[in-house]
Design a protein that fits this description.
alpha/beta; Rossmann fold; two-stranded antiparallel sheet; disordered N terminus
Length: about 270
Amino acid sequence: MNLLKRNVNILDYTIDATQTNVSEKCGAGITIQSSARNSQRAWYEDRRTPMTETLEDMIEYDLQDRGIKDPRVLEAFRKIDRKYFVPQIDRARAYDDRALSLTHGQTLSQPYIVALMTQSLSLKGTERVLEVGTGSGYQTAILSALAKEVYSVERIEYLATTAEDRLLDLKISNVRYHVGDGSKGWPENAPYDRIIVTAACPRIPQSLIDQLAEGGVIVAPVGTPACQHLVIGTKSQGRVDQRKGISCIFVKLIGNEGYTSQGSEGAEPDPR
């Protein structure tokens, strides 16, 4: 398989185990895309010809070709244009399947991982969703198009307020915002039908398990700061049955039940 190496500092990317045997090698500094996308890129690069990227290119090659099939999810990605959430300096890369840097050491995740996490939630349109980590607001906006209500918690006030302004400009009105420790969730509005965590945690925080409704689904990157796996959990009889998905790298979830800013765990291990 042709791996396109990037001369950039990728802070967050995924490696799809169905496409390569290096799924455990977090930190490789590459983003693995669909073979069709790679062939298309190679054609342009071999000829030193500028490649015109479009939103439909991103949806076809980086989402549909890699297993994102939920029509509601795909339509949400058409409705919510990623370019509005990308910093001006990286606007030309808006439709690349790569993470992009935000302020305060945070990142805008690559489209594929946003789509995969969203699809894993199995949203039907009636759910109340808790999002941990507002960031740029891109994932928030995608969720708002698929769920009844979204409750988004962000630790960094600047990101929270700029994301809120951005979504208001897009006439999105079914999102509520809160500045605080995302690892502790937002208990005042619990329970939630779905919870999505967009930062790496050593384990799924107990506070989030407590706030997840019976039968609800939680999606989170779980592991060390250097390498995580996407975990999808379903709550049954008060406990969360978990299954491990693809490898990924996210910035750390800083908080009482996440990591400290130095990288150590901010809470004692769950004894259960």
